[in-house]
Write a structure and sequence with these properties.
By secondary structure, this protein is mainly beta. The protein folds into 2 domains: 23-93, Beta Barrel (Elongation Factor Tu (Ef-tu), domain 3), CATH 2.40.30; 128-522, TonB-dependent receptor, beta-barrel domain (Maltoporin, Chain A), CATH 2.40.170.20. The protein is 5% helix and 60% strand. The chain is built from 2 helices and 28 strands. The protein has a 22-stranded antiparallel β-barrel. It starts with a helix and ends in a 5-residue tail after the last strand.
Amino acid sequence: MKSVAFIVSFLLTFSLCQAQDKDQELVGTVSFVTSNNVYVKFDSTEEIKVGDLLQVSGKDCLKVTDKSSVSIVCSIMDDCSINKGDIVSFIFPSKEVIVEPVPVIVPVEPEPDDKVPEGSKESLFTENIRGRISASSYNLFSNTRDDRHRLMTRFSMDANHIGDSKFSVQTYLNYRNITSGGSSYDGRTSILNVFNLNLKYDVSPDLFVIGGRAINPKASSLGANDGLIAEKYFGNFYVGAMGGFRPDIYDYGFNSDLLQYGGYIGIETAADNVYSQTTAGVMEQTNAGNTDRRYVYLQHSSTLSELNLFGSMELDIFSKTGVNSRLTNLYLSARYRFSRAVNLMVSYDARKRIIYYETYDSLIEQLLDDDLARQGVRMRLNVRPVKILWLGASYSNRFQSDNQNKSDNIYAYATLSKIPSIGGRMNISYNLNNSNYLASNILSVRYSREFFENNLSAEVYYRIANYTYENSLLGDFAQDFYGLNLSYRLSRTWQLSILGEYSQFEAENTYRFYTRLIKRFYSKKKK
């Protein structure tokens, strides 16, 4: 009898587990992808919670950071490649099926305590570390002038949410050492530039603080800030504040006299095929405690289906000379992708010299006398008539009201991505430039291909440049360039490249060599 009871209990337990373990699947579609977030649309998100993982092609690729009733916002995990239109799935257990068990008494061993210890809450953030270290040398040898040698080291890293924590580090350092075979070079020979070096702390998913040297993407025209940046989101709206010091205008180092501070507000929206971000702010920049510059700025970027828009503006509102305001910077650009084979970009910019009233105190009148906007218009068209052929052309024009510093530039190229029969790629380009003092024509031909399972990339090229100087005794002259570029992938993270170039102009022969070793690194979680 006991054996019958045991069998009945086992079958009942097995059927109950089967009813409970049957998983269900929600399927959604990627509606929009930005540099930081992925937006996925579902019929309903009731079963999805912040922190859940979503799958693409059977792999955990997305982590939920925010949600609405039919849409969720995700961060990308494990360096997955996510595109608009991708199918996303979420697996979750079905609702518990209640089955009335037959009252059979069976001895059961006590179950172990499987409670999750307190404090083991899953992190809202996922580590993503990407970095690169490179060492390079540039060597120039000439039979008519001094040799020149330059050593350069670069280190860049984006270490986001180290150890799935709230801390992130960003850095970009550049060191150059220049040596010359003669005494004609009198510039700086040892140069260390710190472009980015900061620590970010995410207090919560909608509030962060950054300390150190950082460039705020919501105020990109401002440049680097040595100090603090704080930003807080309220739904689609955000507010931010920054304070610190401008880098020194001569050596880009730290300068405690150049205090600056300001704030900004903005709105960010995201929906199907639409993303936009608009920021407005004000900045006060000082020198030794006195106002050097005060201005307001506006920045906007948006994507409307296949149309990308960007604009920025700076309006100076401080003056010691009675000038009420000056529009010192205006930039507008639009790019439209008609199809995968055709895209067009148009941009316009108007810039005036930025005047720092304390820094340039003795030059103010001279600078204001030359207070003309340097304007520019640029258009670029890329077309792919067939799968292996790309064609492109661009035109840019620089001008100002006194006809000085004007320039017209025309560039065109054709790239054959796969040459029939012999393989490899061929690129032909032509550049025509006319300015107040120079006219140039440059024709370039390049051929490249890969060897040894794409581990070795080789490129040979020839370039001829013709120059005509206006009002110069030099007249017309031409210069020929011959080059070979080899790049070998030593491993997944190591790469070595060597470029050699020979140029000839009349009696001058010049040899250039550029060697670079690159090491890339990623999170340990990356595969």
